[in-house]
Specification:
By secondary structure, the chain is mainly alpha-helical. Helix content is about 50%, strand content about 5%. It folds into 2 domains: about 90 residues, no CATH class; about 90 residues, Penicillin binding protein transpeptidase fold, CATH 1.10.3810.10. The longest helix is centred in the first third of the chain and has 25 residues.
């Protein structure tokens, strides 16, 4: 496939994508109530009288969760996630069109879908309302529209907090606090830089990078 043909395909796909976002944003996909004001909770935990955890009741859909506010999460860890997942997070409106352009070029060059270009906001949409995670154009369009819309209800820190508390780290651990206990047996507030870097990399492929499965 020569470069000119690739460029034609990329431009056509981008125009199709933008047109659908424009039309659908006017007509479709009202923002679900759950995304207008995000309230995250822990899984049920049972402790003894000395405060030692005896048992945690896991939800089959959401696994192990321990909510932590954004201000308690180390800046090193937050910076690592921004760098890996969405370097323009605080600049774009929920969808990073430059990332989409890059993903389209990578997919056309590879002849298959190898990149989705999802922002942190789009991942929050997927994590909270459970949009089908298959990488298809209809799903990406819906995900993009909702990501743009929730930016009107939530500020960036609220979205980032929701992301860090819902992202999957493998081993039934959802959110950075649960992941920190899962892999290091301590709270996320006590992680060092190396441990923070490890956790930030896990969501890229949580099963493959899980040290309990693939040290």
């Amino acid at each position: 496939m020569n470069v000119i043909f690739k460029l034609i395909i990329v431009v056509a796909v981008i125009l199709f994508f933008l047109f659908n976002i424009f039309v659908a944003s006017l007509l479709l996909y009202p923002v679900p109530t759950v995304l207008k004001s995000i309230h995250l909770t822990d899984t049920v935990k049972i402790y003894d009288r000395n405060g030692e955890l005896l048992y945690e009741v896991l939800n089959k859909d959401t696994g192990r969760q321990s909510f932590i506010v954004l201000d308690q999460i180390l800046q090193n860890l937050k910076d690592a996630f921004i760098s890996i997942e969405d370097k323009n997070f605080y600049e774009h409106g929920g969808v990073d069109f430059s990332a989409i352009l890059r993903a389209i070029w990578q997919n056309v060059s590879a002849g298959k879908i190898v990149s989705g270009g999802s922002t942190i906001t789009q991942q929050v949409v997927r994590n909270i309302i459970g949009i089908n995670k298959k990488r298809t154009f209809p799903q990406k369009i819906k995900e993009s529209i909702l990501a743009l819309k929730i930016g009107k209800f939530l500020d960036k820190d609220e979205i980032f907090e929701a992301y860090l508390n819902t992202i999957y780290f493998g081993g039934l651990a959802y959110g950075v606090e649960s992941a920190s206990w899962q892999y290091f047996d301590k709270s996320v507030v006590n992680l060092d830089i190396a441990e923070s870097a490890f956790l930030a990399g896990l969501p890229q492929s949580p099963n493959h990078y899980n040290p309990f499965h693939n040290f």
